[in-house]
Amino acid sequence: MPGGCRLLPLLLLALLRGPCRAKGAAPGAVTCGSVLKLLNTRHSVRLHSHEVKYGSGSGQQSVTGVEASDDANSYWRIRGKSDGSCQRGTPVKCGQAIRLTHVNTGKNLHTHHFPSPLSNNQEVSAFGDDGEGDDLDIWIVQCSGTHWERDDAVRFKHVGTDVFLSITGEQYGHPIRGQREVHGMATANHHNYWKAMEGVFIKPSMDPAKHDEL
User: Fold this and answer.
1) Count of structural domains within the chain
2) Does the global pTM surpass 0.90?
3) What is the pLDDT of residues 104-140, one digit of tens each?
4) Where is the MIR domain (predicted)?
5) Structural domain harbouring 179
6) Residue 182: inside a domain
7) What is d(CA 116, CA 169) in angstroms, rounded to the nearest whole number?
C-alpha cells in the first residue's frame, strides 16, 4: 500500500481534532486546512489524481475526474500561498488565492502552457514535492458572496494563465479507462463549476492567528 494511503486516516483523525467554531464566524464556510473532494457539477465527477503520469505534454502526474465517491485519491487539502495567508480554520474568501494539495501524493494542482491530451485545451497536472511546487500552483476561488460556502458552486481561476479548472467529458482509455480529462479553459461556463463534497472541514477558529497553516 502506498505511504500516502497509510497516512490518510491519521491525517483525517488529526483534522477532526481541529479548533471549535468561533461565535459569529461564517456558517458552512469552507476553511483553510480542510480536506475535501470537489465535484464538477456539470459532469458529476470528482477531481482526482494518482501516481500515473501523462504520456505526452509535460509528463507530470495526471489529474482526472472520477465517478466514484469513495476513492481516497480524490482528497485535496486547501492551503494558501507560501506567505501564510490561509491559516488553519480561517474561512476562504471569494477572490482568495489558494493551493489545492493532493493528499496521497503531496503534489499541488497545477497548470501551464501544454495542450491537454484529449481535448487540446490546457493541461492540468499535479506538481511539486511534499506540497511545495511553484507559482503555477495558485488558483483564485470565484464565488458570489463573502466566503466560499460548502453549498456553493464555485470556479477556480488560474492566476498564472487565466484559465478555469474544467471538465468537458472526454474519457481516457488504458490505464485509467473511463476517467475524465481535467483541463483549463479560457472561458467561464457551465463546465467549470465545482462543489465541496465529502471531507473533513476544519471549523472556523476562535483565534486563527494561533494556528499554523497545514
Assistant:
1) 1
2) no
3) 999 999 999 999 999 999 999 999 999 999 999 999 9
4) 27-81, 89-144, 145-199
5) 31-200
6) yes
7) 13
